[in-house]
Design brief:
Strand order of the largest sheet: 2-1-3-6-7
Low-confidence stretches: 125-131, 387-405
Number of helices: 20
Length: about 475
């Protein structure tokens, strides 16, 4: 069986020789070129499983080669070698179609990891299970135009190592999209680790992400791997990445740039090979403007954007989604829908998206008589029905107005105590969030509660950050 063939393009003879020797020791056949013209000639004559090119060449830029290979040799991954600290060049190359990058001075262990990943991509390409954009019954259900476009994007992104930033409203299915990218990639057989960045106490973040050595701190009874080590060879999803504190953002940026992590208490770093996907319902660019998110980290994570549509943008998928959810909840005894139920659902705005649809149907199933769900069983919230909007979830109705409308006359008792107290609590939380420009950490401090308590109350009262 013929060994995989790699093309190395670099005008520095010493570096080219180092790369050739390393690749030959890995059992690969290697051709080399010193210019863009030589590389083009070799590409025309031989099929390659990987192209590795410098960014600056005597007769042009490696970026030109990246675009040509991405367009003409679609099953051939191309990686770039960038100068130390040239993060912007690496991001540009990834956006142009590069599979991955490595920085000078070249670390041979990272080079080997890159090559192995690239060869997996090439080997998987001919027989890879492609994403069927018309697969309305797949994990990403729905035949609407936005869902067909989403599945097509996932098909293109699954083969790359470029970081992906998924954005969409809460409950729209960002993690499901991330899992699909992983499942369709050559890393599918490796771990997929999803991390909710907003659920980890700040004091524990470094230990959770990078691990620790035995005895590194009180309670560290054994060595423990972090999320990066657990996801090595696979995919790491940073969910709600906008909730990371600034101090942790600095450490995360270094881990992404160096592709190495150091456990707490360790004296040396260890290489990690992970595909990074981040997700958030917030506007990360706006977080950068407000100083809540580092600009350099934003550029490293936001190489490729993937937008997950809200349920309001795909209401034609409601019947398929409802049917699938009821089948999962009811098993062999799937509930039936009474006349008017789908119409009632179609007229609801679903601020919580697909996750809210699941909750509504699960509750309705508990109240349904003889396995038939009626409109009354849905318990749809008043004030959220009506024509669906293509805009992002609208700002919540004025909490003060809600509170005043349910307020009893002076001296009288409220007609509904839970609703009355919820309206007051909602008004106070919304005012605190408005005062802090929706900085939840500062709002929690203003209210004298923990960040986690505030997040729970926001979910319970359906308080969402307004879109710009």
């Amino acid at each position: 069986m013929r060994s995989p063939r790699v093309l190395v393009v670099d005008d520095e003879a010493d570096l080219r020789e180092l790369l050739e020797l390393t690749l030959v020791k890995m059992g690969l056949d290697v051709d080399s070129a010193a210019t863009v013209a030589e590389a083009r000639a070799l590409l025309a004559r031989h099929p390659y499983q990987l192209v590795l090119t410098d960014m600056r060449l005597p007769d042009g830029l490696g970026l030109e080669l990246v675009r040509e290979v991405a367009a003409t040799y679609k099953n051939t991954p191309i990686a770039v070698v960038t100068a130390f600290g040239s993060a912007d060049n690496a991001v540009v190359a990834l956006k142009a179609g590069a599979f991955d990058y490595i920085a000078k001075p070249v670390a041979l262990d990272q080079l080997r990891l890159l090559v192995r990943s690239a060869l997996r991509v090439h080997d998987a390409a001919p027989g890879a299970r492609a994403v069927d954009v018309d697969d309305v019954d797949g994990p990403l259900k729905g035949g609407s135009a936005v869902m067909v476009a989403l599945r097509a994007q996932i098909a293109r992104l699954a083969r790359s190592m470029a970081p992906i930033a998924i954005h969409g409203e809460s409950g729209s299915g960002k993690e499901l999209a991330a899992r699909e990218i992983h499942a369709r990639s050559p890393r599918a057989g490796q771990p997929f680790i999803a991390v909710n960045c907003g659920a980890i106490p700040e004091a524990l973040m470094e230990a959770e992400f990078f691990g620790y050595r035995k005895g590194a701190f009180t309670g560290a009874a054994d060595d423990r791997d972090g999320f990066f080590q657990a996801a090595s060879g696979g995919t790491l999803l940073l969910d709600e990445v906008a909730d990371l504190p600034l101090a942790m953002q600095v450490k995360l940026l270094r881990a992404i740039q160096e592709r190495r992590v150091r456990k707490i208490g360790a004296t040396s770093e260890e290489p990690v090979d992970v595909r990074l996907i981040s997700a958030t319902h917030k506007n990360l660019a706006r977080c950068v403007e407000q100083g809540a998110f580092r600009q350099d980290l934003f550029y490293r994570l936001n190489v490729i954007e993937l937008a997950v549509p809200s349920l309001r943008e795909r209401q034609g998928d409601l019947p398929a989604l409802t049917d699938a959810i009821l089948e999962r909840l009811g098993g062999q005894h799937k509930a039936a829908l009474a006349p008017g139920v789908l119409e009632a659902l179609a007229g609801y705005r679903f601020p919580g998206n697909v996750r809210e649809l699941e909750n509504i149907l699960e509750r309705a199933l508990a109240f349904a008589n003889d396995g038939v769900i009626e409109v009354a069983d849905l318990g749809l919230k008043s004030g959220l029905s009506g024509a669906a909007s293509d805009d992002a979830a609208p700002a919540a109705p004025s909490s003060a107005a809600a509170a005043s409308s349910s307020s009893p006359a002076p001296g009288a008792l409220p007609a509904n105590l839970p609703d009355y107290l919820s309206a007051i609590e909602r008004d106070i939380i919304v005012r605190a969030l408005a005062q802090t420009q929706f900085n939840r950490t500062q709002a929690a401090q203003l209210l004298g509660i923990s960040f986690r308590q505030l997040r729970y109350q926001m979910q319970k009262l359906n308080i969402q950050e307004p879109e710009a």
